[in-house]
């Protein structure tokens, strides 16, 4: 019930230079649990922003009244990666030894913010529920840790998809929960939810 909302939330997006360079933003209004209305959209050209500094942007909403005030920083990405099984970060013995040295007890207080990292191998899904009448599915998998999010590619027309990808996240809070969600890609429509599992880091 506010025309001037303040969210004050921070989100980290992993921007890879080979992906599209536009950040798309949508503002929605909820009347109740079932009805939502689009209040406006705007875009930010990531390639046009100076790097290694915080950019304060006031973005007018397209074709609608109002604007968004955002702080956006483009910085080198550390600790995050997507790779194939054959080249995963912990697969190299020398790299594994360096990591063990980095997190040994005597080095614990060299960088308080460097808690560690989580490596997840997403192999496959089995016997997914057929979402459409044809019994076909285009599944992909999304991994979320805190406000970090990475996803696999889509395997088309398959109820038993194999992704065989390795995801690496920096850990910012040992009490975070890894959420793994499987969706069915549905063209221009929002993807269909197929299932989810939540894994507390403290249980690993």
From TrEMBL:
It is found in: Membrane. SMART domains: C2. The lineage of its organism: Eukaryota, Metazoa, Chordata, Craniata, Vertebrata. It is a multi-pass membrane protein. This is Multiple C2 and transmembrane domain-containing protein 2. InterPro entries: C2_dom, C2_domain_sf. Keywords: Calcium, Membrane, Metal-binding, Repeat, Transmembrane, Transmembrane helix. One of its GO terms (biological process) is regulation of neurotransmitter secretion. SUPFAM superfamilies: C2 domain (Calcium/lipid-binding domain, CaLB) (SSF49562). It comes from the Eukaryota. The keyword Zinc does not apply. One of its GO terms (cellular component) is synaptic vesicle membrane.
